[in-house]
Design a protein that fits this description.
The structure holds two protein chains of two kinds.
Chain A (H helix, E strand, L loop, with lengths): L4 H20 L51 E8 L3 E2 L7 H16 L8 E5 L6 H8 L6 E5 L7 H13 L6 E7 L15 E3 L13 H16 L3 H15 L14 H6 L2 E3 L2 E2 L7 E11 L11 E9 L22 H9 L8 E4 L4 H10 L8 H4 L2 H4 L13 H5 L5 H12 L11 E5 L7 E7 L5
Parallel strand pairs in A: 3-4, 3-5, 11-12
Antiparallel strand pairs in A: 1-9, 1-10, 2-9, 5-9, 7-8, 10-13, 12-13
Helix pairs in contact in A: 6-9
Chain B lengths: L9 E3 L7 H7 L5 E5 L5 E2 L14 E5 L3 E10 L13 E8 L5 E6 L13 E9 L6 E8 L1
Antiparallel strand pairs in B: 2-3, 2-4, 5-6, 5-8, 6-7, 8-9
The chains are: A alpha+beta, B mainly beta.
Chain lengths: 459, 144
């Protein structure tokens, strides 16, 4: 039965008030109240949105008028999930392109659709597997949407899903695959420096000092954050232990059967302080794919639906300022993105049941959790204990498949798949509460992205 | 004697020449930072435009080689062949109070296992690589 308009508005206002209350307690460096006019969740436009100051510079409202809300909330579902076997880097018997095909076919089978009905592709991190070639190889009837999210690493993982949702919501396509494939044996590894004889541009100011790998690019952010807020190494260790703990129940995980304990972590070698070996993600071969369809198809799908409740991407003011000059330096880069995410999802961190948070390095998880409001920086030592992070009994189940540290480094798409499994109740580390699951994409790069999936009950 | 072994990539101004004045000056033991004549602010690293006022009228000004440690990292795992068997070494991020607190990356000279106090005062040391192709000089840092 349709809900009367007045009730819908009331529900909306109530839920927004709750979100604002949660976000106002979030430990952002800059108070949300201080954000520019029209920005943020507590500065909705209730009158004339467009202001024209004396200097004739038009101030654009950041968000639309509430009466004509533009949102992806509840508009799209993840209809199918698929992945290949995950391999240690260089050990895939298949080419990267073949891995991509395997993952897409698995996702189509899971969604119960003919793969030839796929009509769009989204990816990120300059994925090498071109949608036109994929369409030709698979015999796709008609290609309608092909999209690449800018930026490296796993920063774009949630954005790629969001871009697929935007395409099916706006009628640009009907059935879009968001995918990522990696075969580092066939191509170059991530964790090595450049073999080039010269370093030019911004690289000239860092590489000659031995600062060149991702771990090295991010460690100084984490050092500063831990210094500013008194965060201890034990907090990073707990993040790593949680991933390895969950991987022991997940036969797909590359680190299945390779448990980690505190002593083994403490004895492991430094890569770059404050990252031990076990604070660093794996490097793997494989592929993963999710199929995104309009929400009105949910009733036809074979599985319990996972609705996209919110998605946001971007980065803070001058995040990419050259040579480590970003103003908000000790950051995962979600300070502006997380409020946008929660505003679209109409929920806050307290409404989240399970957290999938991208671990390129544990320190990035620490800052991502803070910037998504799961704790204040000064509370990190208390929250980040193993007992709080494990799926069955912890108050904040974290990276329940093993994540990038222990399941597979598939640039975070494995985290999206795990979020869907949690909502379906099919995880190998099933959380008891599983209606709303957040996926936080790769931190400390730019742009970053995060999303929230929900069961039908959250709509 | 350089802080890190020879064989790492050599810094170059790049095809746009944006940072050429900096690299020429370091060989004369001068530290130049980009300065906007439009709004009298410093910025680093070099860019084609001032991020504050969007002026293209950018200059280079010499600043004192003194700063404070904003952050640091101690690197153990070599990711470049020239660094195999070497290490650890310390990378520092230094704020320059005389240039609007812009930050520069360098190495912290001295014992690579020393404690690095955040906020500590440091001074610049020019490390010349006269025989490299092309020759260049790095700005390094040591505790005052």
């Amino acid at each position: 039965m349709p809900i009367p308009l007045i009730h819908r508005i009331t529900r909306f206002i109530v839920s927004r008030t709750s979100v604002v209350a949660q976000l106002q307690t979030m430990p952002f460096k800059k108070p949300i109240q201080a954000r520019p006019m029209g920005a943020g969740v507590n500065a909705r436009c209730h009158g004339a949105c467009w202001t024209l100051p004396a200097k004739a510079v038009m101030v654009l409202p950041k968000e639309t008028h509430t009466m004509a809300e533009r949102t992806l909330r509840g508009q799209a579902v993840i209809a199918g999930i698929g992945e290949t076997q995950y391999y240690k880097h260089g050990q895939s018997p298949h080419s990267e392109f073949k891995l991509t095909l395997q993952a897409i076919l698995a996702a189509a089978k899971d969604a119960g659709i003919d793969p030839k009905d796929i009509d769009g592709f989204t990816s990120y991190s300059n994925d090498r597997n071109d949608p036109s070639r994929l369409s030709a190889a698979l015999g796709i009837k008609e290609l309608r949407f092909s999209n690449m999210q800018w930026g490296g690493g796993g920063g774009g993982v949630a954005a790629a899903v969001g871009n697929a949702a935007a395409a099916v919501t706006t009628g640009m396509a009907n059935c879009v695959v968001a995918f990522r494939a990696l075969a580092q044996g066939q191509f170059a590894r991530f964790g090595r420096g450049s073999g080039a004889p010269l370093a030019s541009g911004d690289d000239a100011f860092t590489i000659p000092y031995g600062l060149m790998s991702p771990a090295q690019k991010f460690a100084m952010k984490v050092v500063r954050f831990m210094h500013d807020h008194g965060v201890k190494q034990d907090a990073l260790r707990a993040i790593s232990l949680a991933s390895y703990h969950h991987a022991q129940n997940n036969p797909r995980a590359v680190m299945y059967g390779r448990p980690l304990d505190e002593a083994k972590y403490d004895a492991s070698r430094w890569i770059v302080e404050p990252f031990h070996l076990f604070d660093c993600c794996l490097e793997n071969d494989g592929a993963a794919a999710v199929i995104v369809m309009p929400a009105d198809r949910a009733k036809d799908l074979p599985h319990k639906s996972s609705y996209l409740l919110g998605v946001a991407t971007g980065s803070d003011h001058r995040c990419a300022a050259p040579v480590h000059n970003g103003p908000n330096y000790a950051s995962s880069h979600f300070a502006t993105v997380a409020p946008n995410l929660y505003a679209m999802a109409k929920m806050g961190p307290k409404d989240i049941d399970v957290v999938q948070c991208y671990e390129n390095f544990t320190g990035g998880v620490l800052m991502s959790l803070v910037e998504h409001g799961f704790c204040a920086p000064e509370e990190a030592n208390d929250l980040l204990r193993l007992e709080n992070l494990i799926a069955s009994t912890g108050k904040m189940p974290l990276n329940t498949s093993g994540g990038n540290l222990a399941e597979c480094y598939m640039h975070g798409l494995e985290l999206v798949i795990e979020a869907v499994r949690q909502i379906r109740g099919e995880s190998t580390n099933q959380a008891p509460r599983n209606d709303a699951v957040i996926v936080v994409g790769g931190p400390m790069v730019t742009p970053v992205s995060s999303l929230i999936l929900g069961s039908e009950a959250t709509l | 004697m350089s802080y890190l072994p020879e064989g790492l990539p050599v810094p170059a101004a790049g095809t746009d020449g944006l940072s050429a004045p900096y690299w020429e000056a370091t060989q004369q033991e001068k530290l130049l930072i980009q300065f906007c004549r439009g709004c009298n602010h410093w910025q680093w690293g070099p860019e084609s435009i001032c991020h504050r006022c969007n002026s293209f009228d950018l200059d280079w000004r010499e600043v004192k080689g003194r700063g404070s440690v904003y952050s640091y990292e101690r690197v153990w795992h070599p990711v470049h062949p020239a660094l195999n068997g070497h290490g650890p070494y310390i990378v520092v991020l230094v704020e320059l109070p005389d240039a609007g607190n812009v930050r520069m990356v360098g190495n912290l000279l001295g014992d690579p296992k020393q404690d690095v106090p955040i906020g500590a005062a440091v001074e610049a040391v020019f490390e010349h690589h006269r025989t490299a192709t092309p020759p260049f000089s790095l700005v390094q840092w040591r505790l005052v």
